[in-house]
């Protein structure tokens, strides 16, 4: 049964998305200009609005990248695959990837290992998959994850074949950006000094770290990260290839998407020497 907070949530979001988003977006931008919202708050709110305009197929892991196993594989093989890929759930198929018949959860596997008892097959411990069309609206997907209390869905194409896989984390990342856990592959260093002396920096690098390491003095009252800093400078999310100048530095956007700046290069700019 839906509790009160669930129905309030659906009503609020239902009303919000029946409105003209462009009006809300203008309202958010003008609140930013008036200083009522910080850059980070603006990007969160705009990302929430964009959820209602996106389809699952734009954010899912495509079929070819799904770590899955055949139902006739023994539990040992499924466990090894789970450990190798570091995921906590693995879809199980019969015959081929177009026919997903279950999901094995690492916690169920652990329970099985700890409790022992009769040897079980993969089919014995798998759960029923949640199927959704890959055209499903991402905001609706979030609601389904909440109400069904399942955090992974298999997206189907128009012919009923497997199109991809989506989890609650994929939806939340659309709002807050990358979320990583202990098992995610390590990423390249956030700050790298290149051979020519330029600094390659990931957008999520905190401004204070740059200041501590290079005394760059890129500061802001509103934002904490380098990505936030250039967004604030531009008044929007900049495009790849754009260049901005600050006192003594040139910031070149190396990689960005419509929501955030992923990588940028910081170059020191020679200041004209003062006359003696
Ligand atoms: P986990 O922590 O088990 O990897 P999350 O739900 O936190 O699962 O998802 C993290 C990312 O990994 C998401 O992009 C999700 O789509 C992807 N993912 C989760 N399970 C699988 C899987 N079996 N095969 C491929 N990608 C997966």
Quick overview:
This protein is of the alpha+beta class. The protein has helices at 4-18, 21-33, 39-51, 75-85, 106-115, 122-125, 138-148, 168-176, 207-214, 226-234; strands at residues 61-62, 69-70, 89-93, 100-105, 131-133, 152-156, 162-167, 191-193, 199-202, 243-246, 249-256, 261-268. It is built from ten helices and twelve strands.
Summarize the structure in words:
- The chain is α+β, with helices and mostly antiparallel strands.
- It folds into 3 domains: 2-51; 58-176, CBS-domain, CATH 3.10.580.10; 191-268, Uridine Diphospho-n-acetylenolpyruvylglucosamine Reductase, domain 3 (2-Layer Sandwich).
- It has helices spanning 4-18, 21-33, 39-51, 75-85, 106-115, 122-125, 138-148, 168-176, 207-214, 226-234; strands at 61-62, 69-70, 89-93, 100-105, 131-133, 152-156, 162-167, 191-193, 199-202, 243-246, 249-256, 261-268.
- The chain has a 5-stranded antiparallel sheet, with helices on one face. A 4-stranded mixed sheet has the order 1-7-6-5. A 3-stranded mixed sheet has the order 2-3-4.
- A hairpin with a 2-residue loop joins strand 10 (243-246) and strand 11.
- The longest helix has 15 residues, at 4-18.
- The N and C termini lie far apart (79 Å).
- The model has no long low-confidence stretch (mean pLDDT 85).
- It binds adenosine-5'-diphosphate.
- Residues 61, 65-67, 87-90, 151, 165, 167, 169-170, 181 line the site of adenosine-5'-diphosphate (ADP).
- It comes from Desulfovibrio ferrophilus.
- One of its GO terms (molecular function) is flavin adenine dinucleotide binding.
- InterPro entries: CBS_dom, CBS_dom_sf, FAD-bd_PCMH-like_sf, FAD-bd_PCMH_sub2, Ion_transp-like_CBS, Transptr-assoc_dom.
- It holds the Pfam family CBS.
- This is CBS domain containing protein.
């Amino acid at each position: 049964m839906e509790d009160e907070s669930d129905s309030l949530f659906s009503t609020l979001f239902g009303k919000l998305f029946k409105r003209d988003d462009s009006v809300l977006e203008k309202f958010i931008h003008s609140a930013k200009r008036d200083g009522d919202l910080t850059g980070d708050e603006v990007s969160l709110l705009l990302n929430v609005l964009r959820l209602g305009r996106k389809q699952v197929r734009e954010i899912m892991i495509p079929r070819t990248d799904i770590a899955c196993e055949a139902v006739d594989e023994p539990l040992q093989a499924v466990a090894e695959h789970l450990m190798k890929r570091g995921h906590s759930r693995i879809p199980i198929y019969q015959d081929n990837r177009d026919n997903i018949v279950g999901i094995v959860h690492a916690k169920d596997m652990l329970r099985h290992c700890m409790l022992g008892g009769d040897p079980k097959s993969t089919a014995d411990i798998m759960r029923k998959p949640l199927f959704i069309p890959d055209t499903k609206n991402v905001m609706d997907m979030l609601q389904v994850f909440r109400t069904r209390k399942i955090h992974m869905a298999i997206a189907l194409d128009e012919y009923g074949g497997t199109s991809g896989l989506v989890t609650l984390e994929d939806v939340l990342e659309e709002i807050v950006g990358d979320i990583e856990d202990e098992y995610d592959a390590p990423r390249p260093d956030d700050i790298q000094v290149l051979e020519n002396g330029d600094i390659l920096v990931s957008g999520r690098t905190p401004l204070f770290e740059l200041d501590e390491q290079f005394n760059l003095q890129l500061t802001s009252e509103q934002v904490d990260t380098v990505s936030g800093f250039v967004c604030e400078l531009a008044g929007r999310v900049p495009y790849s290839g754009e260049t901005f100048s600050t006192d003594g530095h040139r910031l070149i956007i190396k990689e960005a998407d419509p929501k955030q700046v992923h990588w940028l290069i910081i170059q020191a700019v020679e200041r004209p020497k003062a006359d003696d």
